[in-house]
Amino acid sequence: MDAKKVAVIGGGTMGNGIAHVFAMSGIPVNLIETKQEFADRALSTIEKNLDRMVKKEKIDEAKRSETLDSISIFLDVKEGVKDVDLVVEAVPENFEIKKSVWSQVDEAAPDHAILGSNTSSISITKLAALTDRPEKFIGMHFFNPVPVMKLVEIVRGLETNDETYDVVEETAKKLNKAPVPVNDAPGFVSNRVLMPMINEAIFCVGEGVATPENVDEVMKLGMAHPMGPLRLADFIGLDVCLDILNVLYDGFKDPKYRPAPLLVKMVDAGKLGNKTGEGFYKYD
Ligand code: CAA
Fold it and tell me: Among 29, 42, 49, 240, which is least packed by CB within 10 angstroms?
């Protein structure tokens, strides 16, 4: 089976990036949002990112128009998934929201359709169990900014079958991404390795070992990271980092994953990083 048409549910930071890369690879996308204003915002972000690529001469004007023309907006989940081969869900990391979305998808998507979640922290096996086709359920974990980052972590749930894995791996290659298979476990591989580093960087700031700027300089200049861990935490969202650390902490029952008190305090204060204008740094 080939994924000839896809639905992307959610047009936020990850969802609009995912829709962008599918459409740019010539795969038509039904982009599903809850309100027209959210859909408009997603489309204008995609346009802005395509304009940036035209300016850098990575794509031409014709490719830009073709990409935008391949995206259709839907405000109803069932309508948007009824004629697709693959669904990629990128709604907020809240189990109740995902539960409601997946029950609608399972009811309306064609029987052959593969169901993929871009979750960064919720168990793929647990999400798969919300549907009547856990063997067709898989994690398709993209990285921000999606048009730039090569990795797609492909997460196999307990019942994901080989055919589902193969189709999703092939699809990721068509997007010009590098698929890496991992099995379902808290934080998968990416966040199990990344989040303890970010957390430790926050402990360093909280304990007065160094300023955020200096922690970031150490990791950028000493370890060649493109962004320091605190700038990256702001970019990901401090609330998202806290949620993922809690998933690791609860999942492994190991104190090494306990969230840094300063992280908890910043989330309580509403300083969530780029999206609220302030985190470890201030943003316009
Ligand atoms: N769309 C298209 N192109 C984009 C883009 C976007 N949204 N954002 C950046 N770019 C392109 C730029 O045009 C530029 O292209 P060239 O190399 O051809 O010039 C390139 O990406 C680099 O961008 P900039 O020059 O503007 O800035 P930069 O060099 O500082 O790079 C960055 C920006 C790519 C974000 C880089 O800092 C980086 O790689 N940071 C780390 C990002 C990271 O770790 N992401 C993973 C987060 S974890 C996650 O997403 C998953 C999770 O579960 C939490």
Answer: 49
d(CA 149, CA 144): 7
CB 189 within 8 A of CB 153: yes
Supply the mean pLDDT for the chain. 97
Identify the active-site residue in 118, 120, 121, 199.
120
CATH homologous superfamily of 191-276 equals N-(1-d-carboxylethyl)-l-norvaline Dehydrogenase; domain 2 (1.10.1040.10)
pLDDT greater than 90 at residue 241: yes
Cβ 232 under 6 angstroms from ligand 1: yes
What percent of the chain is predicted at pLDDT more than 90?
99
145 lines ligand 1 (CB under 6 A): yes
Q: Is the separation of the CB atoms in 22 and 175 below 8 Å? A: yes
Q: Which tens digits make up the pLDDT trace of 165-222? A: 999 999 999 999 999 999 999 999 999 999 999 999 999 999 999 999 999 999 999 9
CATH of 6-183, one of 2.60.40.10, 3.40.50.720, 3.30.457.10, 3.90.226.10: 3.40.50.720
Ligand 1 pocket, residue 75 CB under 6 Å: no
Residue 121 has a pLDDT of 87
One-letter amino acid of 229: P
Cβ atoms of 134 and 124 within 8 Å: the answer is no
Q: How do the domains of the chain map onto residue ranges?
A: 6-183, 191-276
- Ligand 1 centre from 148 Cα, in Å? 6
pTM of full prediction above 0.90? yes
What phi and psi, each to the nearest 5 degrees, are found at residue 269?
Answer: -80, -5
Tell me which of 16, 20, 93, 141 is the catalytic residue: 141
